[in-house]
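Appendix B.2, paired examples.
Example (i):
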Amino acid sequence: MIAPPDRTPLPRSFFDRPVLEVAPDLLGRILVRTTPDGPIALRLTEVEAYDGPNDPGSHAYRGRTARNAVMFGPPGHVYVYFTYGMWHCMNLVCGPEGRASGVLLRAGEVVEGAELARKRRVSARNDKELAKGPARLATALEVDRALDGTDACTSGETPLRMLTGTPVPSDQVRSGPRTGVAGEGGNGDLHPWRFWVADDPTVSPYRAHVPRRRRG
């Protein structure tokens, strides 16, 4: 008999570690999004690590700004950013306060509240695609900049909460280059910092960075 996932909230100490320890350890954990219509729960299957001042692919590489300020705050909080003028993506802040690093949540399996996620992801062909990619994940969970800075470790009322879930055994974890990251930050030999559950159908396909062309 398979034991059900552990619904205990992850403690802040889980996130107060180096980002390359936290990222693979997030696989199999459960993210719960509480909405007025009910909860949506997601089992994480793919993540990417970003290591602040040591990482040219990180939003915090060049220091603190109004946009990335949450990354410099306490661990266990949610950093949400807006990209390409149309999509939101969410991260979980790691490491000690003042040392910006975080984990981008790239994909997951909706294990509760799929009917709510489907209303937000009407273009998904099946439930495996509901959160297959970071923008899709945020859309399925109705995450936007209003949730930037949310504490995901509190046991009280909160719109986002991380639960212990069922950690993925190390022999089922794969790693490789980050998706769509330009320059040195996208070099898989230097930064093989995307982690995913082997053979999981909800994991997004790898795509190398493609420079955006100017119009006109």
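Example (ii):
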Amino acid sequence: MIESTDRTPLPRDFFDRPVLEVAPDLLGRTLVRLTDDGPIELRLTEVEAYAGEADPGSHAYRGRTARNAVMFGPPGHAYVYFTYGMWHCLNLVCGPEGFASGVLLRAGEVRVGQDLARKRRLSARYDKELAKGPARLATALDVDRTLDGTDACAGPDSPLSVLTGTPTPPDQVLTGPRTGVGGDGATHPWRFWIDGDPTVSPYRAHTPRRRRA
């Protein structure tokens, strides 16, 4: 049985804080995606923090571009990027405005709209795998670049919003290096996840890619 969760939307002030405060505080919250076919709701179980121009692992490390412009604020908006030529990933921008920090949504438990998520994640053997990893999460929720810049604090009619849900107690939150991040940002312990949750994705260290001749 799924426990009752708080349906109050998170205000913009929630996101207008340092990224290392926002990231672990997102665990247990409810992400709502309104699709043309109906709503999908997901309990967030794993996230990663990225601290903009101060963070070698961030897309904004070398400054503002057309691709990463949404990361510079205002807080509470979605930053969606396309990676490896095939996958989308969903982030939530946090404040203060102008500092390009954001939280990558890495994994979650789909609690409403499982049938809709299954149609997009045909390779998932079990429901716990529907959003087990950032690309799988975005696929299950039908997230692509058209949602880049969406205001997640705009109200119940927004395609994306975040509800209070059931915040995870601090003693149930684990932290470690971010998945797949190399270089100077490889050891930052800025990945946060709920201890023992089956929807959390496995950690993978960065593997350098060889350039084609």
